[in-house]
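Posting here for the record, re: S-adenosylmethionine.
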Amino acid sequence: MRPDFALLDRLRNRFLDAPSKGGDYWESPEMLALYDSTFGERIGWKWDSVLAELRARHWAPPPGTALVDWGCGSGIAGRRVLRAFGADLFTRLVVHDRSALARRFAAERATSTFPGLAVEQSPDWGELAPAEPFTLVISHVLNELAPAESAALLALVRRATAVVWVEPGTSEVARALVPIREELRNTFAVVAPCTHQGACGLLTPENHRHWCHHFARPPIEAFTEAFWSEFALRLSIDLRSLPYSFLVLDRPPAGCGPEAPTPEGWSRILGDPREFKGHFKVLSCEHCGVTERVLQKRDDKALFKAMRRVPPPPVFAWTIRDEKIVGGEHWPVPGSETGKSDEAVSSPESDASEEAPPA
Ligand SMILES: C[S@@+](CC[C@H](N)C(=O)[O-])C[C@H]1O[C@@H](n2cnc3c(N)ncnc32)[C@H](O)[C@@H]1O
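Prediction output follows.
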């Protein structure tokens, strides 16, 4: 069946207008199904990238929590988390959205995908038993929330056991996550993207033009299937560019202060490494701040090659000499090691990464 591109276009315009218009925009289960297989699937690719990084960084949500998908829409984020970590890790799935149609759709999809899983539709997150430990999943909602709604969401975040939050990679939304991180880093361990627990290095005046964003790699079918090429053409979406921002938090064990789980000395690349003749420039987020660093090919050919991967391995331990990278090691990200050659589709320049939400 041919997708209804006029409906997709209308839906996208509605997302773009959401902050000014407010109100529920889901009209039918068919609209949610169309979203789920298009914009939602594209958001799912970002989740795949985040979840692969979390696994590479040896982090999983604590076992025995309820999984709460807040602002679930079609429920793609919750299902990606269940697929990545296994439904058995969670006591149940709770889907919350202001739209009853969305809650029902997300619950039905989750039930059919994970038959043994208890799934609950929650019209009011506040009804959640306060004592129940829960892992909170938030995806592409921030720019739809009025200030009072953001405050209510943050109150819920404060009660969570762990939080996995993925948003678009636009400068506006990525920058909105920074004060949230700053507010929560005294309560939660910062798991990712940061490798450290200290103040965000992007808050310094010399880094004001940067924002913390990353690029996911779309699956091969995005470039081989006729459907996706028509989707890209009709909606003027560059499928190669999949920028996102994210924040993952974990509550420290009782009696302990929050501590980033990443060992000291590791750094996270922001955006994409930029290749020039014989050298790369990377924006490196480190314990001591965010710094632009240069790696020359002649200094470490293997590391130079690793930089060319799409996406690059996110976490590195650099060897630094005279402020330059002269060597280092990285943690592999499952999936980025295979099927990706240096000639594979590359993301456009990271500084040109402004995209239209939500996908
Ligand atoms: C762009 S969609 C994203 C849906 C889904 N999280 C995803 O990533 O595909 C935003 C969702 O947030 C929901 N939403 C917006 N404001 C909300 C609020 N104040 N409370 C609950 N849900 C809200 C919308 O109904 C919509 O389903």
